Amino acid sequence: MGEENCDIPGMDKEILYTNAIDKNGNLIHINNAEKGMNYHCPLCKKEFILKRSGKIGKGSKRPHFAHNELTPGCTPEGVLHYLFKKQLIDLLEKYKAENKPFTINWGCNSCNHKNSGNLMGKADLIKEEYALGECRPDIALLDKEENVLGVIEIVVTHEPEESVLQYYKANKITLIQIDLISEEDLNKVEEKAKNPDIVDLCLSHKCQNRDNYKINRKVICFRDKCGRCFSEIVRFKIEIDSVVGKQYLQDFTEDEMNLVKSNCNSIIIREDPVTEEKYPIFDCENCKRIRSKYAGRRL
Question: Cβ(147)–Cβ(162) under 8 Å?
C-alpha cells in the first residue's frame, strides 16, 4: 500500500533493478535488454542505464539497470512492489475477461482450517489504489454496485498499519496479503497470488472469528438418486456465499441439521469419514421398506 513512493531502509541490499520499460512501454527483463536501446524506470519513468560489464567472479555485479540520474524516493523495493502490482492486476483482468476461476488456497490463522475459493467469484471491478476512507489498498475488488468486497495488499517491507487493518475488520472487508522477498517473485506472480500469505476469512462454521466475516449461509435441498436402489431422494447441502463466490459444502451446524430434521421426515445424520463433519441425509423410503421386509433374515 503506497510502497512504491517510500524510500524504505532495511531491504536486501543485493536487489538490483532487473526490469525496465522500453520506449513502447513494454516491460523488459535485463536478460533481454540490448545495448543502444533506451530504457526507463517503470516507477519514476526516468532514464535507465544498462550495465552489463561482462566480468564474472568476486567483486563483479550481475547485469542490471541503474538510474542515469537518481530520483529521490525511487528504490528497487518500490519498483518490485509496483511491477508485481501491475502484473497481478493484468492477470486478474485476464481471468475476469475469460470468465475463468482464479482459485486461491489459504489456511485460517485462527483455526487452521484449509480454505479455497474463487477470488474473482463475485468481483466485477478491479481497482488500483482505490480510495477507501483513509485507506488506499493496492488492489480493491468491487461488485457491480461498487461495494468493496476484498482488498489485496502487496507487502515488501511495510505491513498495513493497524488503523488500516481495523478499518477492514470493522467494515468486514476481506484482506488478502501477499509478501514479496525479491525480484524473483516477479517470475511467479500467479503462484504467489493463488497462495497468499494472509487471508482474513475463514469459511468454517467452527472458526472462533466466523462472525467477523461477511458470509451468507443457507440450507439448500436438491433432488438426487439413491446410491443403492436409484430411487429419487432429496439431499442437503450448505450454500456459502462470500467474497470468494458460492460454494456448496456438507458443513452443517447443529442448528442447521435441526432445521432440516424439523421440516423433513426420514432424515438420518451421518458423519464424513475424512472431515468428521456431521450432515443430514434423506433415508431412502424404498431402501427402508427393503430393510424392514428382510429384517432378521440372513441375505
Answer: no
Task: Say whether 187 sits in a helix, a strand or coil.
Answer: helix
Given a cut of 80, is residue 73 above it in pLDDT?
no
Rg (C-alpha) for the chain, rounded Å, is: 27
pLDDT surpasses 80 at 236: yes
**CA atoms of 7 and 240, how far apart (whole Å):** 43
Question: How do strand 47-51 and strand 103-107 relate by DSSP bridges?
Answer: unpaired
Query: How many CB atoms lie under 10 A from the CB of residue 251?
Result: 21
Rounded to an integer, the average pLDDT of 267-284 is 85
Q: Which residues of 90-108 are buried (b: 16+ CB within 10 A; e: fewer)?
A: eebeebbeeeeebebebeb
Nearest CA to 155 out of 174, 134, 173, 176 is that of 176
Is the confidence at residue 11, as pLDDT, over 70?
no
pLDDT tens by residue, 124-133: 999 999 998 8
Contacts of 105 (CB under 8 A, 6+ apart): 114, 115, 116, 194, 195
* Residues facing residue 237 across a β-bridge: 220
Give the residues across from 17 on adjacent strands: 65
